[in-house]
Write a structure and sequence with these properties.
Layout: H1 2-46, H2 53-60, H3 64-70, H4 74-99, H5 103-118, H6 125-132, H7 134-161, H8 171-184, H9 198-211, H10 216-227
Helix pairs in contact: 1-4, 4-5, 4-7, 5-9, 6-7, 7-8
């Protein structure tokens, strides 16, 4: 009887501790997301290597110790932030796909969206991620086709169905070639930033890609779109 009574009195305490643990976990998760959001802005503006943990802590008005509560080291911060940026870009592309009038317009808008995140100098996130965090960069490359391959194939199929792209194209082959080409033009060894502007590389590659696919109707659509942008 005494044991049962003790449990009855202890139960609210146990529940209160559980609620406290949930509240603490939520607070920590919220803070971690705030850090990632701020780090994303700084990394995109200044580069993954250029921004130090001290810079991030100072910009947020918190101690560096607070950062290390949520991240073991800068490598983990860069990894989680880079993946967060990747997820955001993927969601932006889904929204572009939903709004675009046709696959040709869609690819051009995706190009413009990608330019927001890549940059053209040695301080750019694309350059610094490849140069100083190659393992993270390779992990993101492996995720690209998993996330974007299906969307690219759907766009190609829509282009075929609407008469803009040739109906004999191999969707699987072309989608993989497109994504591989997009990786290739971002490769700083193949296209050094001192010699090639990323805007020009994107524009030339997209033009090369589309002209290999379009029908006469698609070429007219492409020409009209480029003349108005």
């Amino acid at each position: 009887m005494v044991f049962k009574v003790s449990l009855i009195y202890l139960q609210p305490l146990i529940l209160n501790r559980a609620d406290l643990n949930i509240a603490t976990s939520y607070k920590e998760l919220k803070m971690k997301n705030i850090i990632i959001e701020k780090a994303s802005k700084l990394f995109l503006q200044l580069g993954f290597k250029s921004v130090t943990m001290d810079d991030l802590a100072d910009s947020m008005g918190i101690s560096k110790k607070t950062l290390y509560i949520h991240f073991d080291n800068k490598h983990q911060l860069v990894s989680e932030t880079a993946n967060s940026i990747f997820e955001k870009v993927s969601q932006d592309i889904i929204e572009i796909k939903r709004k675009a009038a046709n696959p040709i317009e869609e690819l051009h808008y995706v190009k413009m969206e990608a330019m927001k995140y890549i940059g053209n100098e040695k301080s750019s996130p694309n350059y610094q991620l490849q140069k100083y965090y190659p393992k993270i960069y390779e992990e993101l490359k492996r995720k690209e086709y998993h996330y974007l391959g299906g969307m690219v194939k759907n766009s190609l199929q829509l282009g075929v169905d609407s008469g803009l792209f040739r109906n004999e194209i191999d969707l699987e082959f072309i989608s993989r070639m497109y994504i591989n080409g997009m990786r290739g033009i971002r490769d700083i060894e193949t296209f050094p930033v001192e010699e090639f502007k990323i805007e020009t590389l994107f524009e030339n590659y997209l033009d090369y890609h589309l002209r290999a696919l379009v029908t006469p109707k698609g070429l007219k659509t492409l020409t009209n779109f480029k003349s108005t942008t």
